[in-house]
Amino acid sequence: xxxxxxxxxxxxxxxxxxxxxxxxxxxxxxxxxxxxxxxxxxxxxxxxxxxxxxxxxxxxxxxxxxxxxxxxxxxxxxxxxxxxxxxxxxxxxxxxxxxxxxxxxxxxxxxxxxxxxxxxxxxxxxxxxxxxxxxxxxxxxxxxxxxxxxxxxxxxxxxxxxxxx
Amino acid sequence: xxxxxxxxxxxxxxxxxxxxxxxxxxxxxxxxxxxxxxxxxxxxxxxxxxxxxxxxxxxxxxxxxxxxxxxxxxxxxxxxxxxxxxxxxxxxxxxxxxxxxxxxxxxxxxxxxxxxxxxxxxxxxxxxxxxxxxxxxxxxxxxxxxxxxxxxxxxxxxxxxxx
Lengths: 165, 163
Description:
Largest sheet of chain A: 3 strands, antiparallel
Number of strands of chain B: 1
Strand content of chain B: under 5%
Shape of chain B: globular
Oligomer: heterodimer
Number of helices of chain A: 3
Number of domains of chain A: 1
CATH class of the largest domain in chain B: Mainly Alpha
Strand order of the largest sheet of chain A: 2-3-4
Shape of chain A: elongated
Largest interface: A-B, 34 and 46 residues
Structural class of chain A: alpha+beta
Distance between the termini of chain B: 59 Å
Number of domains of chain B: 2
Helix content of chain B: over 70%
Structural class of chain B: mainly alpha
Helix content of chain A: 25-40%
CATH topology of the largest domain in chain B: Rna Polymerase Sigma Factor, Chain: A
Number of strands of chain A: 4
Order of helices and strands of chain A: HEHHEEE
Radius of gyration of chain B: 17 Å
Largest sheet of chain B: none
Number of helices of chain B: 8
Strand content of chain A: 25-35%
């Protein structure tokens, strides 16, 4: 390769164009924030909003069922008293109002460290942890033995301040 | 604390590698902005997959793969750009910082090299990869990498340093 010493020397004198500071900052930001990246990366928070909405919906449905159960119990007691004095009403049985909540579980199936994140207004970097969980709610109809089970995934993001020297 | 240190290390290493990586990406795209997008995508992907920062062969292979994907996705645009460049016979944004006319001539000669030779030259001269690393990145043998490098130097020597 000694024959090429001179041309190699000339080539090494050529300096590649330096990247703009904005570019370095952009890459640094992309490393800190997983949401900022190439278009191939799936942004989980897009779905997160839907999961939250779904979670709220399911919780509201559960609350409705609980209240409906309480309301039905009161109605049943009242109808017993009325039945002593009047003909018994036609039994109106709907399976939905007899479902009672039997359990709720939350299983964390994945924890991911998403690196350092600089949030607006924070003095230092924060470590961003994403917990991926699956929440399951169950109801059971004591009379018919039917059960209802709703399960949905959810994401929880936790920011932990980092302190260093 | 250790994670902060690691992050710092990656940042500083990227600052060192960025000029060479951008030059490497510019072989496939004329626009600096496109090259920046390719390098960013490659570097962030490389970092997320927890590869060792010293695994340069894999890093350059990632840049190359993403650049080729980029070309496939934007082939029509790239063709228009290539036609525009060949018509005007000039590169819109310089890939080097020129100190004098001789450097400009040398860079122009470099641009006329066959692509496979220029690729090896860029990796060797401005990114300081070994032939073993180049061979791994390009999925060729070390002998092939060394031959391409030698051919590139012979061609440039004839063009730039005529006897």
